[in-house]
Amino acid sequence: MAQQDWMSDEDLSQRLKGLYDYEQVEVPKIPESERLLGAAEVVTGYTGTQARIEAERCMQCQDPPCVEACPAHLDIPGYCEAIAEGDLDRGLEIVMEAFPIPGSCARVCYHPCTDVCLKGVEGMPIEIPRLRRYITDNADQHAFDYAIPESTGKRIAVVGSGPAGLSCAYHLRRHGHHPVVYEQFDKAGGTLNTIPDYRLPDDVLQDEIEVLREMGVAIRTDAPIAGDGSIDALLNDHDAVFVSVGAVKAREVPIDGSDLDGVYHGYNLLRRLDAGESLFGRKAAIIGGGDVAMDALRSALRTCEEIHLIYRRSPLEMPANPEEVFEMTEEVIQQGWHHLAVEMSTERRVERFKQIFHSLESLTLDRMEEIEANLTREMKAETFDRLDKRVGPLAVHFMANPTRVVDDGQGRAGGLELVRMELGEPDDDGRRRPVEIAGSEFTLDVDTVVFAIGQQIDADWLGDDHGLDLEPDNRISVDEAYRASRAGVYAGGDAMRGPASMIEAMGDGRWAAEAIDADLRGTEGA
């Protein structure tokens, strides 16, 4: 009879302690006083001891909602257990089963998994992405055995090297196919390259992309695909095409002065900052309430004397990731806030779950996600309340909208005219539409204006004869297996969803690769 591999009494005691520990291990960061001195990564990551203690809090649910919530269905309890047992090689194997560039993803993922973590029913959810980062910081992806099978001889074109494209190429290669990634710019990574180094260091991203090259994924930079016949040409040279171009076309700014020097669109500004350009003047205005606006604002904090954040709705409607808002606030007020905000959110979450239990209402995943979304909105609003309109270099202007960029007389931005807003009737999304208040105009003295008001898909690159069905907003129409209307063409990420998150794009890439593999092999379904 084989010998049973039992836990030691000490290990068992530690695991039991973790199961009943509802307090999150706070993630280490560099001091607030040092963050604005350069582009150093703010979050430094767990130590081994901290990661083990946090991982031991995982309850190892039988049907884990975190896995279901993850678009790539990453085995989160599996890698938590591997960390708790000190087996980082197994942890890396579990992570790499789901997607590539996991260290980059761990740094910027909006983690829908934590929204449904059952530890959050009575305490703080597990720091799921930070534990994944611990694995990738301490296990060697370059030395990992990716078990590439015998070549199928099939070549697949992947248009775009963002998260969806890299994920698809990675999984196709692990099936034995030969993906060729085409990137229009000189550096692979797509929209991930616009994320500032203080969130996602460029060397981390590029090192993880190098892993794909070592696996045999061909990545061709400075290789734009565009114009009439581009899809035909790709299909002539490849057995299939996966389209994963990003939503990078700036939305039109229909006001006077938007074409002056010193006026930028958010995505383009971040891409140029990544390339090393110095674009900010002394006083900047950032217009928008999403993640691009937060990245632009936090970049401005590191160089400008004065920054104005302008959003035409209230903080309750801001779509920005709460972590970005919390960390921006810490940089402005120069003291801790992020973990305190998490603690406050936890207290309210537990109370709301108790109300559900007392009313005998079912606690479904949808209900948990709804509660988390409401808490996120509340905490972002309370965070901005702490800023009290003007703190340090930052002034916040909610319920305001720009009407004109003022010309300084030399073709550059010399100011920004705005009008105050109030909420009117709901729009198509159910949010009350902002309307102007007559006679409320005011002007800000700024020399740099950044419009971070959203991106859209630019379908011009397809030409006029692509043969693909497009949605009204230029998204490529696909079926449940990511197949486009034209045989051999598939799409995912922004190209199929519109502007989306990194983890959604990574999931698209994984499941599209499964569909492509099944179709190329002639096997049933995907």
Offer a concise description of the structure:
The chain has 526 residues and is of the alpha/beta class. It has helices spanning 9-19, 32-35, 48-55, 65-69, 76-84, 88-98, 102-108, 112-115, 128-138, 163-174, 202-215, 230-237, 266-274, 291-301, 322-333, 338-358, 365-387, 494-497, 502-521; strands spanning 155-159, 178-182, 218-220, 240-243, 249-250, 263-265, 283-287, 306-311, 390-391, 394-398, 400-407, 413-426, 432-436, 442-444, 448-451, 455-456, 489-491. It has three domains: 9-138, Alpha-helical ferredoxin (Fumarate Reductase Iron-sulfur Protein, Chain B, domain 2, Orthogonal Bundle); 155-247 and 457-521, FAD/NAD(P)-binding domain; 251-455, FAD/NAD(P)-binding domain (3-Layer(bba) Sandwich).
Describe this structure in words.
With 526 residues, this protein is of the alpha/beta class. The protein has 3 domains: 9-138, Fumarate Reductase Iron-sulfur Protein, Chain B, domain 2; 155-247 and 457-521, FAD/NAD(P)-binding domain; 251-455, FAD/NAD(P)-binding domain (3-Layer(bba) Sandwich), CATH 3.50.50.60. Helix content is 39%, strand content 15%. It is built from 19 helices and 17 strands. It has helices spanning 9-19, 32-35, 48-55, 65-69, 76-84, 88-98, 102-108, 112-115, 128-138, 163-174, 202-215, 230-237, 266-274, 291-301, 322-333, 338-358, 365-387, 494-497, 502-521; strands at 155-159, 178-182, 218-220, 240-243, 249-250, 263-265, 283-287, 306-311, 390-391, 394-398, 400-407, 413-426, 432-436, 442-444, 448-451, 455-456, 489-491. The strands form 4 sheets. The protein has a 6-stranded mixed sheet with strand order 6-15-7-8-10-9. The longest helix is centred in the last third of the chain and has 23 residues, at 365-387. The two termini are 42 Å apart.
